[in-house]
Model the fold of this input.
Amino acid sequence: MLGYAGIVTLGHAAFFGAGAYTVGMLAKLGIWNEPLSGLILAAVVAAAVGLGSGLVLLRTHGLTLLMLTLCTMALLEEAANLAHDYTGGFDGLDSLPIAPLFGVFEFNPLYPKTQYLYSLAVLFVCFVFVRTLVYSPFGQSLRGIRENMLRMHAVAAAIAGVAGGVWAQANAYVNLGTLGLDRAATVLIILVLGGYGRLYGAFVGAVAYMVLSHVLSKIYPTAWQLGLGLLLVVIALFARNGILGIAEAAVRAVGRRGAGALPSEASERP
Done:
C-alpha cells in the first residue's frame, strides 16, 4: 500500500480486525471453524470492507486520507464493542474451537508447533502471491502510474484480513485490540525500519523491531518506546529507505570504491 501504491494509512488494522473477528465469530458461534477455508472467508470479508471504505477514502489524499483511515478503524472498533452479544465486546472471544488442520494437526495453545508452522506457511504463500502481483503487468502499472487504487486497496485489505484470521486461529482468541491504533502504528513502524517499497522490507523491519524492543525494554523497561521513537526520527531524517536502503547504499559505496581502485592497480603494472 505505502511503497507500491503510495497510499499512506494508519487504519489498516481495520482490515486485520475484520479478518480476525470473521474467524472468531464463525468459530465461537459454531458456524465454521475449519482453518484454511476460514482464512478465505476472512480475506473476503476484509476485502469487502476495504472495497467499501475505499470508495470514500480514496477520493481524498494526504492528511485528510490519513485521518479518515483512523476514523474508519475507530468506527469498526466501536461497532465491535457495541455488538458485544456476537463479538464479546471489551472481553473479546476466547477459547475459540479451531478445528485441527487437515483433520490431523491440532492447535494446542500449550505446544504451539502447529500454529508456528501454519503461520509460516501462510506467510510464504502470501509473499509469493504479493511478489507475483507486484511483478505482473497490473503491479507494474501500479508502480509506474499508480492507477487502479481501489483494486489495490481491496487486495491489501484481503491480505490484512488473512493475517488477522491467522492471528485469531493461532491464539484461539480475538479482542478489540485487533482493531486498535497500536497495531496499525506498529506495522507502519516496521515498514519504516525495514524500508518501505521493498518486498523484504517488512521482514527485515519485523526482526529489527522485535530485537530493538527486547534490547531497549531491558535497558529502560518503563520508557523503551522513547528510544525506539528517537531511532525512527533519525531514520526518517537521514535514512528514509530504512535498513535495506542503508545496506544498498553501503554495497554501492563499496562497489564504487572497488571500481575506482582497479584502474590505479592496472596503471601500476609494467
In short: Residues 242-268 form the longest helix (27 residues). The radius of gyration is 21 Å. The chain has two domains: 13-180, 200-270.
